[in-house]
Design brief:
alpha/beta
Amino acid sequence: MKLAYVDSSIWITRVEGLPVYRAKINDCLNQLLREEFVLCSSSVVKLEIFPKLYKDKNTTLVEIYNKLFKQTCHLENFSSIFEQAVKIAYTENLKAMDAIHVTIAIHHDCQYIVSTDSHFKNLTTIRPVWIDLN
């Protein structure tokens, strides 16, 4: 099974972003699906998305995201996640949460990490699919 870990920036842009950005995201995700990749997510992605929605009591977006995440493969955390993330943060010069995303993706043998965040553009520990929204 071919896995592509989809970063929270992708989901947020796809759900809440401008239509022109949404089209770029959809094109990329649809291409991965045509190539028989399984789109993956994690509780870390949810941690970055849901707190603001709950704070704003935005039940509509909570429902949309919940439906979306039911259509993706959920990758579980693991016991040494933080120890490995520290190494990746150093190696890739990433912030903690981004290093955790990369660590989860690598741990679960994802072939790609998909993001709009420019600091993922030049990753060396996993192949990035970086979507330029400019």
